[in-house]
Amino acid sequence: MSSQPAGQQWDDIESRRGMGPAVPIAAYAFAVAMSGTTLPTPLYTLYQAQYGFSSLIVTVIFAAYAVGVIATLFLCGQLSDTIGRRPVLVAGLVLAAASALCFLFEGGLPALFAGRVLSGLSAGLFTGSATVAIVELAPERLRGRATLVATVANMGGLGVGPLLAGLLSEYAPAPLGLVFVVNLALVAVAIVGILRIPETVRVQHGAPMRPGRLRVPRSILPTFVPAALAGFAGFAMFGLFTAVTPTYIDEVEGIGNRAVQGAVVFSVFMASTLGQLTMTKVGVRRALPWGTVLLGVGMVLIFCSLLLPSLALLVLGGVISGSGQGLSFRAAVTAVGRRSPPDQRAEVTSALFVACYVGISIPVVGIGALGVATGLRTAGLVFTVCVALLAAATAAWLVRNPAGDEERRPPSD
């Protein structure tokens, strides 16, 4: 069983025309799916006002998403290697639509939790499978560029979600409804597009469909471990911005404009995208440690912004942290993709995302619990110190144990 281009004729056509239509279609679907996961970010203050729950509940709702992601990656991380990329991507989009419907017709906390879990299940199916599908749909000579397309679609989608929700909820009618109607329309277009792209996996009919466990071949652990450490640290920072930053901007900075709140979160994800663009020139070996160094510097600035407080410093720290995360994240995905055996590529990529989403979930619940006891500002100060120290330790570890730039893929264990 192996991952291959859909056919020689398609590959010849794509080689002459560059990426061809399949890669942009898959990237669009990836961006739409990921944007749906961050749509509620600037809306949490509205939900808090409507239902009267604390910042701890906000972080628990957020963590419900991460739990859905991690569970799906564990149970289904290798599924697209078995049944094909397209069925998994379509299933992810259907779950994204179900999540949007939960938020559209929500009537309390149970619907919010259900919507976030469904969103997590969708992201869990998409993160590994879509990344690999985009790379496989590209001609061999453009595979490196396709990795960038995949990671930009991922981060770009995550950034567009809060920006879109912030603008629509602040300046358009039905602040808790219209954005999810728009999301449903975008998802419908994505489903049509995914149904039209070629399959890149030679499916073995009658292959077992039982859940499996994520396995990382022993031979690629020297590459996988530093990549996972960098991913954990970077996504912990994302957890801060997507879960509690809008509430912090509202309560501490006194800025209740949801478009501004969404734009701040958007700037962090766009900085991540720009960081990814620089990785090719920097190289995997240097991008991983230097990305975590930038992440640590950004967290120090965020610490100062909480101490003063200062929105300008918060944005600057977020942009620097985001650029560092993007630099190290693309390097991590590239290194792991290069070293993974072809028939385990989605499985290993999913394992990498498990490490990332553990980073985006557990620390955020901690900041919510600490915020109830000490206040959101104090909790943020503690959190930023912890992430800065983690980034510094990860950078030091990466300097001593670098992930190489080599293209060679070892055999599967």
UniProtKB/TrEMBL annotation:
Every Major facilitator superfamily (MFS) profile domain range: 21-403
- Mind telling me which PROSITE patterns this protein's record contains? MFS
Q: Which InterPro entries match?
A: MFS, MFS_dom, MFS_trans_sf, MFS_Transporters
**One protein family per Pfam:** MFS_1
Molecular function per GO: transmembrane transporter activity
Q: Which residues cross the membrane?
A: 25-47, 53-76, 88-107, 113-135, 147-168, 174-198, 219-243, 255-275, 287-308, 348-373, 379-399
**Assigned keywords, A-Z:** Cell membrane, Membrane, Transmembrane, Transmembrane helix, Transport
Q: How does it sit in the membrane?
A: Multi-pass membrane protein
Q: Name one GO cellular component term.
A: plasma membrane
Give the location in the cell: Cell membrane
* Domain of life according to the entry: Bacteria
> Protein name, please?
MFS family permease
